[in-house]
Amino acid sequence: MNITYFGKLINLLSLIFIFTVNSYAQQSTFDKSLSFIEINKPKTHAAIDSLLKPFRRDTDKMEQLLTLSKQHTYNEGACYAVNALGVIQRDKSNYDNALDLHQEAQAYAEKANSDEFKIISFNMIGVVYRRMDIVKLALDYHTKALKLANSIEQPTTSISHNIAVSQNSIGNIYLVLKQYDLAISQFNKSLTIGKRIDDKLGLAINYHNIGYAEEAKEHLDNALVNYQTSLNYNNNIDSEIGRVICYNSIGLIYLKKGNYKAARPIISEALKKALDLEDQFYIVASYISFGKLELQTNQLNSANEHLKKALQISKAYNLKSSVAESSKLLSEISKKNGDFKAALNYYQDAEEIENTILTKQNLQYVNDIVVAYENENKNNQIKALAEENESVRLHLERNKKIILYTSLLLIPLSISTFLIYRTRALKRDKHILTLEQDMLRSQMNPHFIFNSLNSIKLYIINNDKANAVYYLNKFSKLIRKILIASKEKETSLHDEIETMKIYMNIENIRFSNEIDFVINIDPTINTEVIKIPSLVLQPFLENALWHGLSSKDSGKKIALNISRTSSRYIIVDIIDNGIGRVASKKINDNKHLERKSLGIDITKARLENFSESYIGSYSLEIKDLYNSKKPIGTKVSLKIPTLKVT
Fold first, then answer.
1. Alpha-carbon span 436 to 308, nearest angstrom
2. Residue 307: which of 286, 321, 336, 277 has the closest Cα?
């Protein structure tokens, strides 16, 4: 017993001695590197990294480098140190702290006027935003890094590495958008650079990401090959984080193939290693993998325990995707246990998070499509206008010939009478045609069409087939009604109201169905008999939406009230509880909007033309509503004549 105790004591003292010697040796090496840096102040990331790479995960040593760099106004050293500290915080899932540090590093890179350090800092910021599921900003920063790196004629190895990082990150964003072939293309570009500069970590990451894309395409065997290749590279560079990632992915492939016996030990090992690393991001991923395994093998209590841990950590560290995924799995467990209320709550929480993430993640992708669409649309408009101008020119040439021949045949008085009548008729027809064309262009606004289709697209991406089909049907009905209305000068009040219901229903998608739209009609009014100009109410509803309610936070309402004051008129009131015209104008002025809507002007001209066939004329009044001098909305009152001239 004494011998055993003595042996253990000797072993412990030996370990302490070895650790002390190693620590002293490391500190001595670091001190020498720091002295060299203080004297020579190397300007490139590669030069600094060649001296300090073994110490960049050591917070104390990076703090020493930062202090020294500040004392000597050595911006490159400060940038290197702060970025290293940011990575340490990122790997602990302290994303806000990491973001602050990388942004501070970017400021040092600007002071140093170093493209290399700017590129590195942009990529570091992008990675943190991607971890936080803020994909729009992640894409912005990776794109900045890529553009700057590609502008350098002879990139260093470090810059080439960062080009690969940017391409890899953009590939990851394509993964989130489910554009798997585009993602694989980006990863292959990054792989080519990684092989050229022998970047084993980059190769490990890219092979894993290709595996993820192949898995999403249900090519499980290809995915497994790429995951195992990635694991080999991670073993080669002794990356524990890499092993955790690969173990989870390989385990889930076995799970999808139904090989639970092979899946369990590798997922268990991933969880153990993640807990040792104390990286909350990968701890959550491992708990979720374990939960999936136990759910598949009907171990509901264990699965529930692991997934609740994942959900708790995800909420604490604001890991939105993980919150959504763990909530959906907990919903499935609750459903199996017969707790349908809990199942519904978990599912609704997951849906809410996923909708938020998808909206942010698709923003850049949507903007790209909008630009492409608008360019194509403008080209089509230019072509259509050219054809229209040619048609008008030919029409005028023909009319000139008619006038010439008629002037030779008729007496001067007849010529004068005919010319006056003909000119007026042409002007009237042209005016009416122009108004109807302008009305159609106003209703067929390309921004409205694209945004409506994009909203439907989001339902498709979310696999919400019911809503996608429902709103697609609504959209097709609205387009059909607009096209029919473009051929008719007037329509029944009933058809106009139905069209406006569909229009508001579609526009409400973009407001997350927050708008309470109500229609009140005087029961004495026969909406089938009364005629009004087609699509005359749409511009006023559009103004209420985008100028009145778009900047309001909640409680958004629009009321469409139709009443009769006499047998000769109906009154249409459109009332919103928005911010009012004064505040709206101030917001638009601050935005420096270049595009001006002509919908109201066109509508006034159409109403004036419409009124010529009726007894009395229309009137339009737009009034700001106040409560104790505080704006509470806008009221549009439109008086439309209903008795035709006999």
1. 60
2. 286
Task: State how far the Cα of 314 lies from the Cα of 453, in Å rounded to an integer.
Answer: 33
> Which pLDDT score, from 0 to 100, does residue 1 have?
44
Structure tokens at 432: 């009416």
What is the phi/psi pair of residue 614, to 5°?
Answer: -125, 160
> Is the predicted pLDDT of residue 331 greater than 80, yes or no?
yes
- Reading the block at residue 482, the tokens are 């607009």
Q: Which of 298-307, 429-438, 533-542 has the lowest mean pLDDT?
A: 429-438
Check if the beta carbon of residue 564 is closer than 8 Å to that of residue 525.
yes
The two most distant CA atoms of the chain are separated, in Å, by 140
Q: Which strands form 619-627's sheet, in the order they lie side by side?
A: 516-521, 557-566, 569-576, 630-641, 619-627
Q: Which pTM was predicted? A: 0.47
Q: Mean of the pLDDT values across residues 34-39?
A: 89
Q: Rounded mean pLDDT of the chain?
A: 81
In this predicted structure, the answer to whether residue 121 has a pLDDT above a threshold of 90 is yes
pLDDT at 555: 87
Q: CB atoms < 10 A from the CB of 253, how many?
A: 22
| Cβ within 8 Å of residue 344, ≥6 positions away | 331
What are the tokens at 555? 């409680």
Going from N- to C-terminal start, the domains of the chain cover 410-641
What architecture does CATH give domain 410-641?
Answer: 2-Layer Sandwich (3.30)
Q: What are the backbone angles phi and psi of residue 59, rounded to the nearest 5°?
A: -60, -45
DSSP state, residue 614: B
Exposed / middle / buried, residue 252 (Cβ in 10 Å: 0-12, 13-18, 19+): buried
Q: What is the pLDDT of residues 231-270, one digit of tens each?
A: 999 999 898 889 989 998 998 999 889 898 998 999 889 8
Classify each residue of 365-404 as buried b or exposed e, where b means 16 or more C-beta atoms within 10 Å of its C-beta: bbeeeeeebeeeeeeeeeeeeeeeeeeeeeeeeeeeeeee
| 256 HSE (CA, 13 A, CB side) | 15
Give the three-state DSSP class for 341: helix
For 169, 237, 384, 479, 625, the CA distances from 487, given in Å and listed in that order, are 51, 71, 18, 13, 37
What tokens were used for 368?
A: 């790209």
The one-letter amino acid code at 211 reads G
pLDDT at 20: 43
3-state secondary structure string across 53-77: HHHCCCHHHHHHHHHHHHHCCCHHH
pLDDT tens by residue, 541-590? 988 888 888 878 888 999 999 999 888 899 999 999 988 888 877 877 66
Q: In the predicted model, is pLDDT for residue 25 greater than 50?
A: no
The residue with tokens 């599921």 is 133
Q: What is the mean pLDDT of residues 214-237?
A: 93
Find, among 352, 316, 317, the residue nearest to 331 by Cα: 352
